[in-house]
Design brief:
This protein has 7 helices and 15 strands. By secondary structure, the protein is an alpha/beta fold. It has 2 domains: about 200 residues, UDP N-Acetylglucosamine Acyltransferase, domain 1, CATH 2.160.10; about 50 residues. It is elongated, with a radius of gyration of 24 Å. The N and C termini lie far apart (about 60 Å).
């Protein structure tokens, strides 16, 4: 019963998006897609740039056409259109994927969107994002991205999971579990670091450095243990401290040479 209920919910989601797209009409939808970069990319200076510098817009527009053909039974033609789009735009979007209104793929190079993916309205996707599957079974095996979500550069959202409304995924994160609405997830695998955050922007400068915080914890833990050993057992670790200090200096020197 649970599975049937889930399938029905997925069907309802797809039906709602498809109905909204049909009401708008293909031509109006294409005009709307062309207008989206004006609201999402401050680098846009003229309409001519849309033709030559925004492959993400062309990929979405081509998908609009291919999706309509695919769902009407012209599957081979739909696949051919998206195959050509993959060659021209360097993005792999399956024509069966369900994509809502005002979805913007910024830069877009390397974006992959799988067959059963559902993307609702006003979603922002950056370059290198994968909305992929982890199962070879038929049925819903790709993510659902709810409205107003932001997927950061290089993020991998895998499996039949849901990124809730206003969800934000940090760059290069690997998401394999559901992300609640108004939440931010980062890391490999991704963890929720913010909840009930209704700010629609994803500011990577504010995201915590998880690796740095873990190293700081480990260093403090080791220092605490060394202090306890010195104080309680009277063990002299001065030689070891000297050796470690030499290793640390070599590490810093190597890092500085890489930066140069």
């Amino acid at each position: 019963m649970g599975e049937n209920k889930e399938e029905k919910t997925v069907e309802q989601q797809i039906e709602a998006i498809e109905e909204a797209n049909k009401e708008l009409g293909l031509w109006n939808q294409i005009k709307e897609d062309f207008s989206v970069p004006k609201h999402n990319d401050p680098a846009l200076n003229s309409n001519i740039e849309l033709i030559f510098n925004y492959p993400g817009v062309w990929a979405i527009i081509n998908h609009r056409v291919a999706h309509r053909l695919y769902t009407k039974g012209f599957k081979l033609i739909g696949r051919m259109i998206m195959g050509l789009t993959q060659f021209l735009c360097n993005m792999d979007i399956h024509p069966a994927a369900t994509i809502g209104r005002r979805v913007f793929i910024d830069h877009g190079i390397g974006v992959v969107i799988g067959e059963t993916t559902i993307i609702e309205d006003d979603v922002l996707i950056y370059q290198g994002v994968t909305l992929g599957g982890v199962s070879l079974d038929k049925g819903k095996r790709h993510p659902t991205i709810k409205a107003n979500s932001v997927i950061g550069s290089g993020a991998k959202v895998l499996g039949n999971i849901t990124i809730g409304k206003n969800g934000k995924i940090g760059a290069n994160s690997v998401v394999v579990c559901n992300v609640p609405k108004n939440s931010t997830a980062v890391g490999v695998p991704a963890k929720i670091i913010k909840r009930d955050d209704k700010n629609g922007k994803l500011n990577h400068a504010d995201l915590p450095d998880i690796n740095k915080e873990m190293f700081e914890y480990l260093l403090k833990r080791v220092a605490l243990l060394e202090h306890h050993i010195k104080q309680c057992d009277g063990i002299d670790l001065s030689k070891e401290d000297h050796d470690l200090e030499c290793i640390y200096k070599k590490f810093i020197s190597a890092m500085n040479s890489i930066k140069k």
